[in-house]
Design a protein that fits this description.
Layout lengths: L10 H11 L4 E8 L2 E6 H17 L7 E5 L4 H13 L2 E5 L5 H8 L5 E4 L1 H6 L7 E4 H6 L21 E7 L7 E6 H15 L6 E3 L7 H11 L4 E4 L11 H7 L4 E4 L1 H5 L12 E5 L5 H7 L4 E6 L9 E2 L14 E2 L3 E6 L12 E7 L5 E2 L3 H7 E3 L8 E11 L5 E6 L4 E3 L2 E3 L1 H9 L4 E11 L2 E10 L7 H9 L10 E4 L13 H6 L14 H13 L17 H15 L5 H7 L2 H7 L17 H4 L38
Helix pairs in contact: 2-3, 16-17, 16-19
Organism: Stackebrandtia endophytica
Protein name: Amino acid adenylation domain-containing protein
GO molecular function: phosphopantetheine binding
Length: about 650
């Protein structure tokens, strides 16, 4: 028996035990398109990962080394991650959909090897200087598939060794690598078995982006319990578009989603087969529980990356719940709600949430200063132990359950993703025509949103769209501000610190981009703004970036057909994303009517003011990163709690 906290509590040992128990049970199922599937059992997965692990060891991988894994959503991704862990190294999962510049930054952050396939090798060509191993070639080689043991590794693997590194947004302008250990994985797997009733015969959807630790949650939930991990291409996992088909067609029993993703599923029957639904990544409102708790087990999970994905989990929530706790600490984790003097506060009183226990990460990769700042001495534990300062506010209720109450610092919480302003500011300030930059948080029809503010250089600041394009080449999508404003100077507080509240209050000048007033594109923008309930929309704004849902797309095409008299399919909006793109595929030329019998758009609903010059916007950001869903409900704000 391998127990969490014991000397054998490493992922390879836990996985080997599961292979012994269920060698012929399906481990990974891949559904590239409806009606097509590939399935691989635990014995196959064990043999393949042994072969790749041996090749990694030959190239120097082992305990205290890092191996980047860059694979699309395919069983090869699972083979790569497990092989790295079997070699004793820590895996650094990458999302190949990220901008090349971002991928290059992560590859330069400490990994010694890159494990990828044909697609990843092409995508990353010239972006790094790492020694590269192609998994497709390794699997074709005649390598032994016998079990990998400590005798094969560079030195013995222990629970305290790193298992994976997940990058979160960093205040210095560079991402922070959270170094998580095998002991944390063992605690996580035990908690999943305790709370989620998972085992052989169940199917777990691999929904999260591979570079977020929610993907580790899903992998452990399935493969350390004897269940099946179901994978599908990312476009098939969009809530309200393809997700329901995958869940239904693949008979998913265990699913982890954000409340925002659930909001986009209009037909509740799409999840009828789901027995256990984990809601995480954001504050969970009672309406979510009311809509989705019936007929299944629904739990609310909370945890930063620094505590191995999950620190607390609620009991099964009832549909009539009026408040939604984040629950109690999982086994092996202790939670404290402390005041400014690190004193424990009584139930009902809000304080800062601190976490301690075996699930704590080792710290931040090559970041001793920020590690010391966030992982502090444990005043209530044995000498030498630490606790993690989450920066989240919480309180205990009278039944010993925790409730999330917001954030303490400048870190932005947007739809389940953690956003550090400094990282965005550094990228903005790197533009040659920007002298200084800052970001703030505003609210739009879809919830919280990041807004950029720049002080122009001598040549003047470029337009908002140009700056957002600049950022999109360097940052993941969820870090790109929805708009950029120009300010004369950045406001400061009396203490000399940046005054973000004053920034958000200053709506004086959105950097303009060219817009041909009176064109058909302008009319399409006005119709999109009408459907979304916004003041204005720009030609190059993504309709779904602005908060649009599949139902909004249906409404938009209806209005286009009504006003312009052209037949535009809903699929066109999904394919083109922007009004400029929709305009390009409309065959009928646009003319302003000079015939009084032909109706003009009514009032200001469909026409842009003749003196506007630009179409400004104020919209919610597309939910990306932690979970590949779309935009959250307007009720949800930027201070929501993460399963990070």
């Amino acid at each position: 028996m391998i127990t969490a906290g014991g000397p054998d509590a490493t992922f390879p040992r836990l996985f080997a035990r599961q292979v012994e128990l269920t060698p012929h049970a399906p481990a990974v199922r891949y559904a590239p398109r409806p009606g097509v599937r590939e399935e691989f059992d635990y014995a196959w997965l064990d043999a393949q990962t042994n072969r790749v692990a041996r090749a990694l060891i030959e190239r120097g991988a082992g305990p205290e080394t890092l191996v980047a894994v860059a694979q699309p959503r395919h069983p090869d991704l699972v083979v790569g991650l497990i092989a790295v862990l079997k070699a004793g190294a820590a895996c650094v999962p990458l999302d190949l959909s990220y901008p090349p510049g971002r991928l290059a930054t992560l590859l330069a952050a400490g990994a010694g090897l890159l494990l990828t396939g044909a697609y990843g090798a092409e995508r990353l060509d010239g972006r790094h200087h790492l020694a590269t191993l192609r998994s497709d070639r390794l699997l074709a080689a005649d390598t032994s598939d016998s079990p990998v043991t400590d005798a094969d590794r560079r030195f013995p693997l222990r629970p305290t060794h790193p298992a994976y590194v997940i990058y979160t947004s960093g205040s210095t302008g560079r991402p922070k690598g959270v170094v998580t250990t095998h002991s944390g994985i063992a605690e996580l797997a035990r908690a999943q078995r305790d709370h989620l009733a998972v085992g052989p015969g169940h199917r777990v959807l691999q929904y999260a982006s591979p570079c977020f630790d929610a993907a580790i949650w899903e992998l452990c939930l399935a493969l350390l319990s004897g269940a099946t991990l179901v994978m599908a291409p990312a476009p098939d996992l969009r809530p309200g578009v393809g997700l329901g088909g995958v869940v239904t067609g693949q008979r998913i029993t265990h699913l982890t989603l954000t409340p925002s993703a659930l909001d986009l599923i209009a037909d509740a029957t799409e999840l009828d087969g789901v027995r256990t639904l984990v809601v995480a990544g954001e504050r969970v409102l009672p309406s979510v529980v009311r809509n989705w708790a019936g007929g299944r087990t629904l739990v609310n999970a909370y945890g930063p990356s620094e505590s191995t994905v999950c620190a607390t989990i609620s009991e099964a929530l009832e549909p009539e719940a009026t408040t939604v706790p984040i629950g109690r600490p999982i086994r092996g984790t202790t939670a404290y709600v402390l005041g400014e003097g690190l004193e424990e506060v009584p139930p009902g009183v809000t304080g800062e949430l601190y976490l301690a226990g075996a699930g704590l990460a080792r710290g931040y990769l090559d970041g001793p200063a920020v590690t010391a700042e966030r992982f502090v001495a444990h005043p209530y534990g044995p000498p030498g132990t630490r606790m993690y300062r989450t920066g989240d506010l919480a309180h205990w209720d009278g039944e010993g359950r925790l409730h999330f109450d917001g954030r303490t610092d400048d870190q932005i919480k947007l739809h389940g993703s953690r956003v550090e302003p400094g990282e965005i500011e550094a990228a903005l300030a790197a533009h040659p025509d920007v002298r200084a930059a800052a970001v703030s948080v505003g609210t739009g029809p879809g919830g919280g949103q990041v807004i950029g503010h720049v002080v122009a250089g001598p040549a003047g600041a470029p337009g908002s769209a140009e700056l957002r394009s600049w950022l999109a080449e360097r940052l993941p999508g969820h870090l790109v501000p929805v708009l950029v404003r120009e300010v004369a100077e950045l406001p400061l507080t009396p203490s000399g610190k940046l005054d973000r509240a004053a920034l958000d209050a200053d709506r004086s000048h959105v950097l303009p981009d060219p817009l041909e007033v009176g064109s058909r594109t302008s009319l399409l923008c006005a119709l999109a703004a009408e459907v979304l309930g916004m003041a204005e929309v720009r030609p190059d704004d993504g309709f779904f970036d602005l908060g649009g849902t599949s139902m909004d797309a249906v409404a938009l095409t209806g209005r286009i057909n009504e006003v312009l008299g052209v037949d535009v399919a809903v699929a066109t909006v999904f394919e083109q994303q922007t009004m400029a793109g929709v305009d390009r595929v409309i065959d009928q030329p646009f003319r302003r009517s000079s015939n009084p019998s032909e109706p003009e758009p009514a009032g200001g609903e469909h026409e842009l003011a003749a003196d506007s010059g630009t179409a400004r916007f104020d919209h919610s950001h597309l939910l990306r990163g932690l979970f590949p869903g779309r935009t959250p409900s307007p009720e949800r704000r930027h201070d929501e709690q993460p399963l990070r």
